[in-house]
Amino acid sequence: MVAYFNAGAFAEYTLVSAKQAIPLKEPQPEALAVLVSGATAFIALQRLGELKQGETVLVTAAAGGTGHFAVQFAKMAGCHVIGTCSSREKVEFLKSIGCDRPINYKEEDLAATLRRAYPKGVNVVYESVGGTVFDLAVNNLSHHGRLLVVGFISGYQSDSGLQPIRGATLPAKLLQKSASVRGFFLPHFLSECTESVQKVMQMQEQGKLLCAIDNGQMDKGGRFVGLESVYRAINYMYAGKNQGKVVVEVSPPNI
């Protein structure tokens, strides 16, 4: 049993090079989450985040597929972690994985809360939402702050497709703080992926890391089973309903 990182995920069968295959002990959905989301959080925070003990880290969409990994890795590094989410249930989930200050942006004003509670700004932002959240993150960077762009889900579903992140005053804002924005795209770090995935899997197997899987059990249509449910799973994710990594069971054992 193996996992791989390549195009063509929404298929029943595919052909991959042996060099791309990562051996698995068991066919667990957690392996899929670790392969993409876990590796993204691990490498991005390690390589670009340059986390230091005692720093403050803001994770947007913290209860999501990659966000919940970022929360845990930042805590392992000895950081104070803030996590944004959209429900009271997600607040409790974030508390359970060590998030120091979950912020439900539907009940709290995110900008006002950050200004009040963290007047000196945050050292590192792990950002996957984009749009106004991206701008807010830039505004709340500390001196020498690092903003890691790992995605921008708010721009994925427009009529004209992907939209660029806008920020007319971004250069001035960064210059005033000697801060930086660092993009991260996992395919650019494939040479480090296998080793990182193995480390993250080992953490998960040893019980040091929670890997949350959302297979649609709370969706009105039920679990995401079969290729025909992929569109439903993606809409579920766009709506911000998922808690953990969204996984579709292409061919469950009992079918």
Tell me the strand percentage band. 15-25%
Order of neighbouring strands in the sheet with most strands: 5-4-3-6-7-8
Q: What's the N-to-C terminus distance? A: 19 Å
Number of DSSP strand runs:
10
User: What share of residues is helical?
Assistant: 25-40%
Largest sheet: 6 strands, parallel
What would you report as the Rg, rounded to the nearest angstrom? 18 Å
Number of helices: 8
Task: Please state the overall shape, judged from the principal axes of the Cα atoms.
Answer: globular
Unreliable stretches (pLDDT < 50, length at least 5) are 160-169
The chain-level structural class is alpha/beta
Order of helices and strands: EEHEHEHEHEHEHEHEHE
Mean pLDDT comes to 84
Walk me through this protein's architecture:
By secondary structure, the chain is an alpha/beta fold. Helices cover 35% and strands 17% of the residues. The protein has eight helices and ten strands. The protein has helices at 29-49, 67-76, 88-96, 110-117, 131-139, 170-177, 190-205, 230-238, and strands spanning 2-4, 21-23, 56-59, 80-85, 101-104, 122-127, 141-149, 180-183, 213-214, 245-246. It has a six-stranded parallel sheet, with helices on both faces. A two-stranded antiparallel sheet has the order 1-2. A two-stranded parallel sheet has the order 9-10. Helix 1 packs across helix 2 (67-76) and helix 1 (29-49) packs across helix 7 (190-205). The longest helix has 21 residues, at 29-49. The radius of gyration is 18 Å and the shape is globular. The two termini are 19 Å apart. Residues 160-169 have low confidence and may be disordered.
